[in-house]
Design a protein that fits this description.
Strand content: 25-35%
CATH class: Alpha Beta
Distance between the termini: 62 Å
Structural class: alpha/beta
Largest sheet: 4 strands, parallel
Radius of gyration: 17 Å
Strand order of the largest sheet: 3-4-7-8
Shape: globular
Order of helices and strands: EEEHEEEHEHE
Number of strands: 8
Length: about 150
């Protein structure tokens, strides 16, 4: 069998097939099942504080004459407590040390909040961080008058 292992910017994994941050990467059980099924890495469902606006909003993707050829998901952040996610990321890395786990993080737009979240996440053994700098849902829109 061909060697499909990957070393991308120092992140190593057994193959280039990864799950993106989303509902299938929200718990230890989901990520462990993916790794057992052969996936090489996963971007853990975006975690952060405060947990705001977590309602899933699915929409269909149409292609030419094909109605609903796929779904998109714009669920923004995990509704699970940060500490639960961090504990489970560490468990996954202990059980699957050769698989890549990227921790997707999102906090309010304050330097101190980012520093604190990264510090809390470092000890999990995650291979890298994805910093979600989106303006929503954690940063309220500013009015033009204020």
């Amino acid at each position: 069998m061909a060697d499909l292992s990957v070393n991308f910017a120092g992140v190593r994994c057994p193959n280039p097939f990864w799950l993106a941050s989303g509902p299938p990467t929200n718990t230890y059980g989901q990520v462990a099942r993916a790794f057992d099924a052969g996936w090489g890495g996963a971007v853990w469902k975006t975690i952060g504080e405060p947990i705001i606006n977590v309602y899933s909003r699915y929409g269909s993707v149409d292609l030419g004459g094909t109605r609903m050829m796929g779904f998109n998901n714009i669920e923004l952040i995990s509704d699970r407590p940060v500490e639960d996610n961090l504990r489970e990321i560490a468990e996954v890395k202990r059980k699957y040390p050769k698989h890549a786990v990227i921790a997707s993080l999102m906090v309010e737009s304050k330097r101190e909040s980012w520093h604190e979240m990264v510090k809390r996440t470092q000890d999990t053994g995650a291979d890298a961080f994805e910093l979600n700098l989106a303006k929503c849902p954690t940063t309220p829109a500013r009015s033009s008058s204020g």
